[in-house]
Amino acid sequence: MKDAGNYIVPKLAKIPNCTEVTMAGKKLVFGKTIWQLEDSNHLLGDISALRRQMDSAGYLLLRGFFDPVLVGKARSEILDYMSSQNVLNRGQEAVTITQATASPNHHRLRFTHSVIQQLSGFLEVVNSRQILSFFDSFLGGPSMSLDHKWLRATPPGKNTGAHCDVVYMGAGTKELYTVWTALNNISLNMGPLAVCLDSHRHQKLRETYGASDAHEDLLEGYFSRDPYEIIEKLGFRWASTPFQAGDIVIFGVYLMHGSLDNLSDKFRLSCDTRYQLVDADVDWRHMGEHPDQIPKAKKRISIQDARANWGI
After folding, report:
1. CATH code of the domain in which 226 resides
2. Which pLDDT tens digit goes with each residue over 9-20?
3. Which of 7, 56, 163, 206 has the most crowded CB, counting CB atoms within 10 A?
4. Cβ(16)–Cβ(30) below 8 Å
5. Residues 6+ apart with CB under 8 A from 2
6. Domain of 117?
7. Mean pLDDT of 2-31
8. Phi first, then psi: what are they for 277, rounded to 5°?
9. Can you tell me the distance from the alpha carbon of 26 to that of 6, in angstroms, rounded to the nearest whole number?
């Protein structure tokens, strides 16, 4: 994102009411069961206003935050790797594709820490002075990023269930922020991020599910894969939007989120990276040479059994 004083990020058009999308195969309708995320670009340059918006809404959507040239370089590297794994449509050259069309025999691709360390263009984006400077100001001191970077190529037909990040990385400070970054243009039918509005304020969820650990307590970190269960049992409202490459959403560890279904023939490219103060407690499981290889405790229980115990 260029200087907010001389760079105007174009707003995406309002999503018409009655627009239909799906999550886990279930239909959601804009204006009825899902709403549109609102951007906070107008608050850039006013840290106090950004903090108030985070406390109130639970997220910050910043359009065009990352330089599209740097994001394009990172995307080319990612597509090169994906091409080497035979998941892209044959005949496409990675340097020229703008969206990653899946091959007929595609599969979900895992980007290990060792693979990510070879993607210098990607690391240049997520470890950039730009994002760290933002968090230096937002957090009020020198910031850092966890070594564990989640790079995702979500294939056609898949989505992510509802969860809060605290269950995966809650052993350090709770003032830890996720930055979800769109690495290609992501339309509503490509499975964009979806968040549960006001879920960061749900005290019982914080005290039960939010106090659990997916590595120590739970067999899986998802709270639910059913979007209507979230609406009917917790009273949350889903929200999403299309994204352009370089857009980011920032949110804390207690905001419940997931994604819509990818109904396209393309991979959705995105990443999740985490930032915090340097002098705050760190979840060291996500640091070091193997931050994506976290041991799991043997006596973990299912989320269904845990929720029955919690009465939620």
Report:
1. 2.60.120.620
2. 556 789 999 999
3. 163
4. yes
5. 67
6. 21-278+296-310
7. 78
8. -70, 145
9. 42
